[in-house]
């Protein structure tokens, strides 16, 4: 069993046990705040179940119908989880608003407080574990699941503080007020998760990944690599696809061009992550001479002035960079 599958199964089993514990706490106390936490646990179970299927699908090899693999399903999984969180937040606010006007009796809050406190601590441990595995395995699904559990942790600890205040002050309507506040926080978390997943589905560029690639190229650049531009990154599950244009001396033959491009491919894959590169080779132009460091160039038109430092802002532009425009 893969590391990702093991992690999501652990998440699913833990969520199931914690949900039962939270509903037990609700039936003991009758607290709306505890019901809020229990309802979110249902979302955890649904999300973990869908995450398991998406991870299974994302690990399937490429085929004729999916030449880029099945990794995009992880963004869809994160989107579904975000929508479920949003729905849970809205339901929580509606029910708690009703009970704020028509408060219900609560009891045995000390027992409920202890149960919610313990479940929150367990969620924090599992959430951090999922985040760690998700980052190591480059899994959007596991990271989304981990952040969701950490959100559940924060809400649980907030509810614990609220329950303690209720016991100290005996102000019953605080129970519904706390539940409403937690509901809005849950909606905010669901929005952020949904926004990120939609960005992934729409192939939104990840500037952090671009910066990592540019940093590797800049620190290890070869003299024939005159310029890099139109650099883009896409993520498909655990795999990354990178394409860019590289300007090389126009008099290089095909074998020499292939060698230089292969070196870029090896460099990025050795210092970055598992990536598939599509590199378009551009011939140099006379205007490139003043930032080209090919000392023995037989066709130089202008003297070398200065090197253009590659940055993420420069390389994402779909045009060659001429020194006259930058110096």
UniProtKB/TrEMBL annotation:
Keyword field contains rRNA-binding: no
Keyword Plastid: no
GO biological process terms on file: intracellular zinc ion homeostasis
Name of the protein this chain belongs to: Cation transporter
Subcellular location: Membrane
Single Gene Ontology MF annotation: zinc efflux antiporter activity
TM region(s), chain numbering: 7-28, 75-94, 106-131, 157-188
Keywords carried by this UniProt record: Membrane, Transmembrane, Transmembrane helix, Transport
Residue stretches making up the Cation efflux protein cytoplasmic domain: 225-284
Domain of life: Bacteria
Family stated for the protein in its record: Belongs to the cation diffusion facilitator (CDF) transporter (TC 2.A.4) family.
Membrane topology: Multi-pass membrane protein
Residues of the Cation efflux protein transmembrane domain: 8-202
Main location: membrane
Cellular component, GO, one term: plasma membrane
